[in-house]
Amino acid sequence: EVQLLESGGGLVQPEGSLRVSCAASGFTFTDYAMSWVRQVPGGGLEWVSSISSGGGIRHHADSVKGRFTISRDNSKNILYLQMDSLKPEDAGVYYCARGLGPTINVEYFQYWGQGTLVAVS
Amino acid sequence: EIVLTQSPATLSFSPGERATLSCRASQSVGKYLVWYQQKPGQAPRLLIYDASNRATGIPARFTGSGSGTDFTLTITSLEPEDFAVYYCQQRGSWPPLFGGGTKVEIK
Question: Do B101 and A59 touch (CB under 8 A)?
Fold first, then answer.
């Protein structure tokens, strides 16, 4: 069974930093690109970042480019999102989601974690 | 950047009724439109991919249709567990973007 378990959320001050993690199990982690999708208060979903299966290709939304960095540790099956220079509008629930294959494509998200809450205030 | 519009924001139905939800794209996404269901406190759940393909385990009462810029999610007979928020997402061009969602509530 595919499982994605996020952790690391919390309350941080504006301009602060936070790293959230996603532990993956139930599938071969190195076979899949991974993504972060956030849900802002009020409900809207926003794609944040994606990383290829080997970690060599990364994409970030314009709203977080230069502030957030996605990475992965394939030896530990963990996905990370380092968030720096946080703004109040970055607050929300951060979900990790599995892609369809090893490369970053415009894709859909079949598996999601339960999310970790980030508050910026 | 493609914009997805889901309107209205809220629809009210009684159990057993047929629900039709709309998602309109600002430009063509071909067949590359996805639907998710989200219940309070839960992550989104994949329902339909590429306009009309049901994801694994999704009941047959959920049907997706459309192409280009106009898409529809139909729930033929609403069950109590179907009252939730439904989001569409386009994967026709980068970046993947979501619609604002339609809440299906009990009348």
Answer: no
